[in-house]
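Human: I wish I could look at a protein chain and see how it folds. This is the protein in question:
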Amino acid sequence: MDRQKKRKDAGEEEQTVVRSAVSIKPPKLPDASDQEPLPSAIRRAKEEEDVRGRLFLGDELENTALVGADFYGCTFSECRLSGWQLEEVHFSDCLFQGCDLSGLRLEGGGFHRVEFRGCRLMGVSFSGTLFDNVFLSNCSASYGNFAECRFRSCLLQGSDFSEGSFGGSQFQKSAVEECRFRLTEFFHAGIEGLDFSSSSLEGAVFAIPDVKGITVSAEQAVELSKLLGLRVK
């Protein structure tokens, strides 16, 4: 089964939604989704069958391991998926709404046209993950590992990333709004052009070159001046 070929949406026109200053392609969800118990879908995914156009409602399935699976056009609503171990798993045109994904670990996979709304993402490990046209809103993602990730046309909005890491991550055509980055680490992150003025950067950790080209509030500028060894009166 040629998964790479099926990931292409050849010839399809994609709608673009402008959120803030970011243009994001929203998930292309089916008009009607067939509800299926999540354990059944996982069994099929382990047999290398793609999971398409399914609604998972209120399912609880913790500490699941899955390798090389693809989910297309699926909605996860009020599901508990904590502790999942995923490798080379891809989610395209999916919606996660009110889900608990705490402790989920994803290696070598990615999210393409995906929305996370009101989800619990505490302690997730998404290191090296691709986020492409992703909208993450009102989520709790403290202690999350987002190091070495690639964010392309993404918006992080109203979410808490306290005490997490974005070290080495790259942001392209992306934005952050009203987020909390308390004690969050940004060493060697490509954040030039991001506007942090509406977000909290209390105790956030940067290297001096990291802050070049970012936008901050006057209060944040005083705090960041300490990186340069300046004393502001």
Q: What stands out?
A: Residues 16-43+54-228 form a domain with the Pectate Lyase C-like fold (CATH 2.160.20.80). The chain has three helices and 17 strands. The chain has one domain: 16-43+54-228.
